[in-house]
Amino acid sequence: MDYKQTPGRKSFASTTRTKQQSAQGKSYLKEAKKKQMAQEKAVKRFIGFLFFLIVAVICIFLIGMKTNFCEEHFGSDSAITKFFKNMENNNANKDSADFSLAAFGARRKNILLLGVDASEFPDDLWTGTRTDTIILVNIDPRTKSVNALSIPRDSKVYLPDHNGVQKINAAHAIGGVDMTVRTVENTLGIKVDKYIMVHDDAVKNIVKALGGVDVYVEKDMHYNDYSGHLHINLTKGYHHLSPDEAVGYLRFRHDPMGDIGRTQRQQWFLRGVLNELKKPESITKIPDIIDVGRKYIKTNMSLYELSQLASVTKHIDMDKIEVAMLPGAPNKSGVISYWILDPEKTQEVVNRLILRKKVYDDFERPVTASIVYTDSKSSEAKEIKNALKASGIDVICESRVSKTHSQFIAHSNRISNSYYNNLRRENDILSGYQFIYDPAIFMCAESDFTVVAAGK
Questions:
Q1: What angle in degrees, to the nearest 10, is found between the helix axes of 303-315 and 12-64?
Q2: Backbone phi, then psi, for 88, in 5-degree steps?
Q3: Where would I find the H helices in 316-377?
Q4: Are residues 191 and 302 in the same domain?
Q5: Of 301, 329, 353, which residue sits at a domain end?
Q6: Residues 6 or more apart from 123 whose CB is under 8 A from it?
Q7: What CATH number did the domain enclosing 162 receive?
Q8: Which domain holds residue 189?
Q9: Helix (H, G, I), strand (E, B) or coil at 260
Q10: What crossing angle do the helices spanning 12-64 and 202-210 adopt, rounded to 10°?
Q11: DSSP secondary structure string for all residues of 179-236
């Protein structure tokens, strides 16, 4: 007897398909969120490292520009004294050349930051390397703000010069920095003004040039990755970190603090570096540090332009840094895994962070919010909910998550960095949240923004 499905009931096969589709959807979302979190971590680590380099450059120039100090220690005819005297003369011959915001110019600048992996050629650090980190930074001297757009290295793009469809990180291996710049420009429809490339070995060699860095290690750190040649063996307490120990200290990630722990270690490490640079004997190490920059940092910016970039960085309001990743989804083509960019969402992100276009939304409807929180932040989540409601914001979703970093994630164009800063000023409980723009992935509901209350 043939089985006939009862009206209103689903067949076993239909139910199975539905469950499979649901499982696939959850797996897709989970993988997309994992990819997003990995890129956010890469952005924060690279931006933190970039600021470390810029601050170090500032300190070197502030010390070095005191030519009287150089003359006293090295003599008026020494190479170091002549080097900084030439810098002084070059600055004096340029309009607004002193370390001032105006010297960078009023126009916004797009600077492409590239972090490259190790080269197969010991005598050539750059040829054939892939760009593990690609970040487009937009600096606006007028508003003293910085926007950083992370481009996933697996993004599926078309490379110039008939090189076909590839991952974007292959552009440098195939055609060098010129092809990388053109690929970013063609993909996003923008103009890259300058680029700065940093080699993996830069941190290690800066510490080597300084002769080590004093840091208080907050906990025992033991980890071995034999395939990655990473060996960390640090005990709690004060250490004069060697180059290898410094790399291990900064790369250590096996603790419940996650991003917060790594960010704190970057700050403590930076303090150690600055303390080393403040020592009078550090002036003798300037040539070695400059050599590190020449060898492990590649840029089309002149020394004067770099000094002005450092000047601008001193004036940047840290509360006005906005970070986003190019929206998309993971996908496999055979054995190759790609990040497939979402054209419409990508254009939204570029318009907002790079072109800084003003988009007028429907402000008559109430602003909606979602709150996601860890178990340890449940009471804080309630306070946040009450604070948002008091500000006339409709909280439409609440959920528990497993996260280690507190964030304020804007999903719609009506939620700007200024909006968050005004909200933060009205409600102290929202202070200290990292601002991120992500129009594509929601953790709880399709709200205008999501507050992530995380950590211990």
A1: 110
A2: -60, -45
A3: 343-353
A4: yes
A5: 353
A6: none
A7: 3.30.420.590
A8: 42-202+284-353
A9: helix
A10: 30
A11: HHHHHHHHHHT----EEEEEETTHHHHHHHHHT-EEEEE-S-EEEEETTTTEEEEE-S
In-domain check, residue 83: yes
The DSSP H or E segment spanning 276 is helix 258-278
pLDDT tens readout for residues 13-62: 445 555 555 555 555 556 555 655 555 555 545 554 554 555 454 444 44
Q: Could you tell me if 67 and 125 lie in one domain? A: yes
C-alpha radius of gyration, the chain, whole number: 25
* Structure tokens, 95: 């309009």
- Which amino acid, one-letter code, is at 232? I
Give the Cα separation of 151 and 443 in Å (integer). Answer: 21
Asked if residue 256 belongs to a domain, the reply is: no
Residues 82 and 175 in one domain: yes
- What predicted TM-score, i.e. pTM, was given to this entire model? 0.65
Q: Is residue 443 part of a domain?
A: yes
What whole-number percentage of the chain has pLDDT above 70?
A: 66
Closest CA to 252 of 233, 273, 271: 233
Residue 1 scores a pLDDT above 60: no
Residue 230 within a domain: no
| Block residue for tokens 């010069």 | 161
**Three-class secondary structure of residue 150 per DSSP:** strand
pLDDT score recorded for residue 36: 58
Total domains in the chain come to 2
